[in-house]
Amino acid sequence: MPNTINAYPIGTLGLAWGSEERAAWLAQQKIQRSYLAEVISPLTTLLLDRDSPLPDAAELVEYGVLDYQAQGFAQYPLYAVRSRNWQVDRPTVLVTGGVHGYETSGVQGALQFIAQHFAQYSAQVNLLVLPCISPWGYETINRWNPNAIDPNRSFVADSASAEAATALAFVHAQAEKVRVHIDLHETTDTDNSEFGPAKAARDGLAFEYHDIPDGFYLVGDTENPAPEFQQALIAAVSKVTHIAEADAAGCLIGEPLEQFGVINYAKKALGLCGGMSNATFVTTTEVYPDSPNASPIQCNQAQVVTVCAAIDFSLRNSNTERAT
After folding, report:
1. Strand 255-256 and strand 75-83: pairing?
2. Do strands 58-67 and 92-97 pair parallel, antiparallel, or not at all (unpaired)?
3. Which of 40, 141, 283, 289 is the most interior residue, by most CB within 10 Å?
4. Which residue(s) pair with 15 in the sheet?
5. Using CA atoms, how far apart are residues 319 and 281, in angstroms rounded to an integer?
6. Helix, strand, coil percent values for the chain (each to nearest 5)
7. Which residues contact 206 (CB under 8 A, 6 or more apart)?
8. Which residues have C-beta within 8 Å of that of residue 230, sequence separation ≥ 6?
9. pTM of the model as a whole
10. Residue 178: helix, strand or coil by DSSP?
11. For the chain, what are the domain ranges?
């Protein structure tokens, strides 16, 4: 399909949104699911299960609160799961989920990794998992925060996104050096039907359409592509779900393919979560939950497998360090 201009019900082409348009957009956002029920409660239950090795390996840390009461919503406590036996001489692995709250398997995959694998890997590495960075986005199934700001373009100094700023400050305070960072995301059909057109309207631009890839892919870092690392993750995930094929132009979402299942973005320049550290090994997962060939179970499992494969690769290549 050629690039098209999708009309969006708010705003005027050529004019960026002002306060009136942002307020109109916010008025349309509704709570559709519960952060408490689907994220906090399962997380606290896991950490209290004395029949599991997890409580001895992990601790729950509240690293901040998002206050959106003035916008008619709630306060959202922010949680991370951290290795209880943190050792400065061990490599640190950072896992982030729910930077875009609507990308469900990023959050649920992080919770599943904590439940199934955290205790095992915490004997070898320091683990820091932020399973849901944008809880308001999770509840409203949204890409942005209530101020129509994309947290995943906001991991910068003096960030306008409280979600990004709070996570960034916490991670930097916890770990001066990160060896592995896996940021868990999805690419969905709503990127073309809602979130892409909304972004274009917000910025006063025409919406540029790209086919949504059918399958899993990774977004590496242009400045630190680590191709063997990306290849190892794709190989691992291909055992649980299918990998996206490039389009006729050799691209995924408009970006040229670097290798099978992998494109690269300039993570730091774009303010992406994946650029928050100088990790030796970094990637962003992109699961396609709308595929007729993938179930929610497979989507969650793809996220988990990626994290495990990333840690395994880093342990096999323990002498590799990123040049700075």
Report:
1. unpaired
2. unpaired
3. 283
4. 12
5. 12
6. 35, 20, 45
7. 5, 13, 200
8. 218, 220, 258, 259, 261, 262, 283
9. 0.96
10. coil
11. 19-316
Residue 218 near residue 181, CB atoms below 8 Å:
no
Whole-angstrom Cα distance, residue 267 to residue 177?
A: 17
| Residues in Cβ contact with 72 at an 8 Å cutoff, skipping those fewer than 6 apart | none
Average pLDDT for consecutive 10-residue bins of the chain (324 residues)? 66 96 98 98 94 95 98 97 96 98 98 98 97 98 98 97 98 95 98 96 93 97 98 98 96 96 98 96 98 96 98 93 66
Do 31 and 87 meet the contact criterion of CB atoms below 8 Å apart? no
Q: Can you tell me the distance from the alpha carbon of 180 to that of 316, in angstroms, rounded to the nearest whole number? A: 13
Main-chain phi, psi angles of 129, to 5 degrees: -120, 120
SS3 sequence, 137-164?
HHHHCCCCCCCCCCHHHCCCCCCCCHHH
The strands making up 180-186's β-sheet, listed across from edge to edge, are: 58-67, 75-83, 126-130, 92-97, 180-186, 281-287, 217-221, 262-265
H runs (alpha helix) in the chain:
19-27, 35, 41-48, 54-57, 104-121, 135-140, 162-174, 190, 196-203, 227-237, 296-316
The pair of structure tokens assigned to 185 is 């995301």
Cα 204 from Cα 258, distance rounded (Å):
31
Q: Which CATH number fits domain 19-316: 2.30.40.10, 3.50.30.10, 3.40.630.10, 3.40.50.1100?
A: 3.40.630.10
Closest C-alpha to 279, from 195, 163, 171: 171
Closest residue by Cα to residue 155 from 260, 58, 55, 282: 282
Length of the chain in residues, anyone? Answer: 324
